[in-house]
Specification:
Chain lengths: 761, 164
């Protein structure tokens, strides 16, 4: 019998909310170390140029400047998983983000002043800013370290296929082909990047106060760049003011800060201002997707062929690997008999792309869902019905060999179809001017981690003290998503102690056990399972003693209300008393245990087939919009979002993740684009790059679906990325539905809407 | 005293202070650097995000656009000044509502958001006005939040006026 849950499933405020509302949380820009200097980075003035000379002599003479570095002063390895990115550029610059020199000074103002005194002579050159141009034979090689045999300007190619394409084409009653344009979107975390580096030459140790969301991979990458042993680098994560994937990689400013600290012999802090944040942060992968899809006369999908060209920018970061995720959407979202998928990350002289919540999936979902609407129109079939007919199902083993042991896809579709039917209202305004429309979209995403690294595991150490307080030392990281609260809730549930007696320690690589990092919506799932394993081990110490003290059997025990109880006799004993007995009376032990959990997922084979996640998340959205055909403005009225979350752990945190994700998806759909022209960034400010504000917020109706996946903690699956993924697709479908035009690019700006309307008439 | 400095007196979080400052010093720098009150957050330094919001004589202003000399004779409240010394009830009702309604995720927008809400709440109370959701949205329109999608923050503000 499932025991009744007392903490899990009930709303719990975040454990760190108190320090955050009081202004006491210490973010990267709040760190102050004794004798600390301030660093600043000189970036190129031109996207593409030969660096003829760099003269730092005037800057060195400025009072208060302590050290200056250029590529000539340092002995380092390249960064990036492709090893194609020098932290400081030598000889030439390849994009507008490029770092040429860096200064450490007594004050931020002096550091900035010194940058102005560095004289750089450029020999400006023509760049290649269009990936299709870069693929031509006569294009220059853009990145000198690029090594792929397929094409000198391809950083990373992907090919995947399953099924009998010709057979499925023959079966198709209708085939549609479209080209979709997906823009650069930037994370725009409210806290700009910040790092503080402190190097001690006494023991050759480097301490980094960092905002990384993958501290152990970061430690390894940093060590590679600096040619140090990883264990000599201690990563302390400050409170992180927004992640969303932006902190999944290491970027040049981080080793640069370490190098300045090493050279200066004093701690150095680098913080970005907002403009630098827009220019120097990675973006969502910009791409062009050509998608052909087929359907038979009954409305069953037959095949998809996707060809994707991604603008990689001048260097490679994780954005180039988004096809790992995208191919699942093409191959396995809705039942899919045949699929061929090709994606190339192509070097250009634009700014480079990184990872961003959803990891390519919002782009892929946009293409798939737009194509589905076109197929439905050809068939004259209802757009909800065609989706229900093809929905994924429990027990499905997809062409890519993903195993859907639980699947709430159909339920999710039904809930939002029903929901939007209820909130839909007749047009109350001038019908000639205002047109309403409804759009649907689904999403499939990994929900139990993703095996893309040799281990996808997480370690946990537990320590219960003599007073019954518990310390959870987890490898996982908190980046605002609320994972530490969920861990606290699980421990409170299992040990029957109040959450106020639980502390979570998760910010120091010298202390915490290994974890691969925050990505792929994995933290609650993987860190949660790791914690539950550790609690089991803790109980192998607690239970025998408690049973002995209560004169009963171990399986008669219940942990509740700060006590251990005998279910049979009703007698109980305080848990801290048991702890003290174990410590002082016998067996003279401490309540300290450690556990490592590795998900049962597999690596994909070289054909990208295999069950790479412990569980899969499904969601569906139905969105109602109103289009003002005079101004082209799109207003989102209602968002219905149903998601298979496995099991709701913390409804308060879950709701926040859903609403935050959906609104971020609205920004992607309607306003957000980092505009780049000839390599220059045109809109590096909040004034010109528009985030959604409180006034843009529609009613968000959320329907969690509990499918209880036995692989997850209490049946839960990953949650964090899903809500963003289908939103832009559903909004585009709704706009298209409202005004009867094809929407093939994002963001759907008023200009584009007006243009589409005038093309139509 | 050199000519390019100014002497100002002001009250911050109930403490009276006197400082000699440069006329170009921004209020956010006075608060964060000179007074080491790090709760007030720099998000853009261009008046666009609201993370640096503090109260001056009860009005919410962006401290990144405000010259410190102009606080002379005035009363500043920062996020640190909202919490109380009471161990059993350490929070202002606005802070408490944000915690209970899940209005905080990464928390970087939170201090500024809380200060804007505080000013709005006092303004509404002074005018015996109970705002609806649309008015609440307008009141926090100048505070960007990338994490929450605002809904839970709006819920938190709404709860402050329940039963009125
Ligand atoms: S920092 Fe002042 S408004 Fe953004
Ligand atoms: S909670 Fe992160 S920006 Fe608002």
């Amino acid at each position: 019998m499932q025991k009744e849950l007392k903490v899990i499933g009930k709303p719990m405020p975040k454990l760190d909310a108190g320090i955050k509302v009081s202004g006491k949380a210490v973010y990267g820009q709040d760190v102050v170390l004794p004798d600390m200097l301030y660093g600043a980075i000189l970036r190129t003035e031109y996207p593409v140029a030969e660096l003829v000379s760099i003269d730092t002599s005037k800057a060195e003479q400025l009072a208060g400047v302590v050290s200056i570095i250029t590529a000539d002063d340092v002995d380092v390895n390249n960064i990036s998983y492709r090893r194609d990115h020098p932290a400081l550029k030598k000889g030439r610059v390849n994009c507008i983000r490029d770092e040429i020199a860096a200064v450490a000074a007594e004050t931020p103002a002096i550091a900035r002043e010194a940058l102005k005194l560095i004289e750089v002579k450029y020999n400006v050159q023509e760049g290649v800013f269009d990936p299709f141009e870069a693929l031509k034979d006569d294009a220059p090689q853009i990145n000198e370290f690029s090594s792929h045999e397929k094409n000198k300007n391809i950083s990373h190619p992907f090919h995947y296929e399953h099924g009998d394409l010709q057979q499925q084409k023959d079966k198709s009653a209708h085939i549609v082909t479209s080209r979709y344009f997906l823009p650069r979107m930037t994370h725009a975390c409210l806290a700009p990047c910040a790092i503080t580096a402190d190097y001690s030459n006494i023991d050759n140790r480097l301490t980094l106060y960092s905002v990384t969301q993958v501290p152990f991979l970061y430690q390894r990458d940093m060590a590679h760049v600096l040619k140090m042993e990883p264990s000599r680098i201690r990563v302390i994560q400050t409170v992180i003011g927004g992640g969303f994937g932006s902190k999944l990689d290491m970027y040049p400013y981080e080793p640069i800060c370490a190098l300045l600290a090493m050279k200066s012999g004093r701690p150095v802090q680098i913080t970005f201002d907002r403009e630098e944040e827009f220019i120097a942060s990675p973006t969502r992968q910009k791409m062009v997707i050509d998608l052909t899809s087929g359907v038979d006369e009954k409305g069953k999908f037959t095949f998809r062929v996707a060809k994707i060209i991604m603008d990689n920018g001048a260097y490679t970061s994780w954005g180039a690997t988004t096809p790992f995720v995208m191919m699942q959407t093409f191959s396995s979202m809705y039942q899919m008999p045949a699929c061929v998928f090709d994606a190339d990350a192509v070097y250009t002289n634009n700014v480079y792309a990184g990872s961003f919540r959803g990891y390519g999936n919002p782009q892929a979902t946009f293409a798939v869902e737009r194509n589905i609407d076109l197929l439905a129109e050809k068939l004259g079939m209802d757009k909800a019905e065609i989706r229900l007919l093809n929905a994924n199902f429990r027990g499905e083993f997809t062409g890519q060999e993903l195993e859907f042991n639980t699947c709430g896809h159909k339920d999710a579709l039904e809930m939002v179809i029903d929901g939007v039917g209820k909130t839909r209202k007749e047009n109350d305004k001038d019908q000639k001017r205002y047109k309403k429309g409804i759009g649907f979209a689904s999403m499939l995403h990994v929900g139990g981690g993703a095996k893309i690294y040799p281990s996808d595991g997480c370690g946990t150490i537990l320590k219960m003290d003599d007073y019954g307080y518990l310390t959870i030392i987890t490898g996982s990281s908190e980046i605002g998503q609320g994972s530490e609260t969920v861990l606290g809730m699980m421990a409170a549930e299992e040990l029957g102690i109040g959450i106020e007696k639980i502390r979570v320690i998760n910010t120091d690589t010298d202390i915490k056990p290994w974890d691969v990092g925050v990505h792929a919506s994995r933290t609650s799932f993987v860190a949660g399972n790791s914690l539950l394993g550790a609690i089991k081990e803790l109980k192998t110490k607690l239970s025998p003693k408690a049973a002995e003290m209560l004169k009963t059997d171990e399986d008669d025990l219940e942990y509740d209300g700060g006590t251990v109880k005998s279910i049979k006799t009703g007698e109980s004993i305080k848990i801290d008393k048991v702890a003290r007995q174990i410590h002082f009376k016998g067996p003279n032990d401490l309540l300290t245990v450690s556990h490592y959990y590795e998900p049962g997922s597999k690596f994909a084979d070289k054909n990208f087939k295999g069950n790479i996640s412990g569980a899969y998340a499904f969601a569906a959205q139905a969105i109602e919009v109103e289009v003002d055909t005079y101004t082209g403005n799109v207003r989102v009225l209602n968002i219905h979002m149903a998601q298979d979350v496995g099991k709701v752990l913390n409804p308060l945190g879950l709701g926040g993740q859903i609403e935050g994700g959906v609104v971020m998806g609205m920004g992607y759909a309607l306003t957000e684009e980092l505009k780049v022209d000839n390599g220059y960034i045109l809109n590096p400010s909040f004034h010109e790059y528009k985030l959604p504000t409180a006034c843009d917020i529609p009613e968000i109706h959320f329907y969690p679906i509990e499918t209880i996946d036995e692989a997850g903690p209490y049946g839960a699956k990953g949650v964090g990325e899903a809500p963003l993924i289908p939103t832009a697709a559903a909004i585009a479908n709704a706009v298209s539905n409202a005004i009867g035009v094809e929407i093939d690019s994002l963001p759907i700006t008023p200009e584009k809407v007006l243009q589409a309307l005038s093309n139509k008439s | 005293m050199p000519t390019d400095t100014h002497k100002i007196t002001f009250t911050i979080n109930g403490r009276k202070m006197e400082r000699t400052i440069s006329p170009s010093l921004l209020l956010i720098d006075l608060i964060r650097e000179e007074l080491s009150l790090k709760g007030t957050k720099p998000g853009c330094l261009e008046g666009e995000c609201g993370a640096c919001t503090v109260l001056i004589n009860g009005d919410a202003i962006s401290s990144c656009l405000y010259l410190a000399v102009n606080v002379n004779g005035k009363e500043i409240t920062t996020i640190e000044g909202l919490s109380t010394d009471d161990r059993n009830a350490p929070f202002d009702p606005v802070q408490e509502a944000m915690i209970q309604h899940g209005g905080v995720q990464c928390g970087y927008c939170t201090p500024g958001m809380v200060m804007s809400i505080k000013a709005f709440q006092e303004h509404c109370e002074a005018n015996r006005f109970v705002p609806g959701r649309e008015e609440i949205k307008k009141a926090i329109e100048g505070n960007l939040c990338r994490c929450t999608g605002y809904t839970k923050i709006i819920d938190a503000v709404e709860s402050l006026f329940e039963g009125e």
